[in-house]
Amino acid sequence: MIDLGLSKLAVIGVVALVVIGPERLPKVARMAGTLFGRAQRYINEVKSEVSREIELEELRKMQKEMQDAASNVEQTIAQNLSEVEDGINAAWTNDSLSDPGLSHPLLSPAAERHMAEKARDFRKKKMRASAMPAWYKQQHGTRTRIMSGAARVAKYRPASVRKTSSSFHQ
Questions:
Q1: How far is CA 141 from CA 28, 137, 145, 149, in A?
Q2: CA-to-CA distance for 130 and 132, rounded, in angstroms?
Q3: Is the residue at 113 inside a domain?
Q4: Is CB count within 10 Å lower at the N or C end of the chain?
Q5: Cα–Cα distance between 75 and 81 in angstroms, integer?
């Protein structure tokens, strides 16, 4: 930029006073100030518009990159899904073609027997080994069977209350 010091501004003011004259100098100074302000506003508008255009271009590039990444992910998922479906369909056709009496082609006979035992024993309650014998537990009132709260209420309810089945019928 132009380096304007206080001495240079004083020289410009004196020359303007001599050339323009003291009567018209305030009008010229106002006009110069308004023109200078308009020029600054115009330059600021142009700068902001250019920066907005640059940001829009960057956003468009970013949007395109995101769309490309999303389409790549979508294609990968679709490809993996089709591979899994093909594998399931192949296994299904192999199972439907094989004799139902034969074992499963993916499991060994030992693994198949183990799974059958687990399924059979799923609901069975196992006896827990304890240091305290069962006759001692029975003699001293230790619970050997667990009863739900509703079953306990029904078991120990007095006979007079049992006759009325519900309090909603009153």
A1: 113, 6, 11, 18
A2: 5
A3: no
A4: N
A5: 10
Tokens of 117: 């035992």
Separation in Å, CA 115 to CA 104, 120, 167:
12, 9, 49
Residues 6+ apart with CB under 8 A from 17: 25
Report d(CA 164, CA 162) in Å as an integer: 6
Please give the structure tokens belonging to residue 55: 């940001």
Domain presence at residue 60: yes
Structurally, how many domains does the chain consist of? 1
AA identity, residue 122: F
SS3 1: coil
**Domain boundaries, position 51:** 8-93
The pTM score is: 0.36
| Residue 46 belongs to a domain | yes
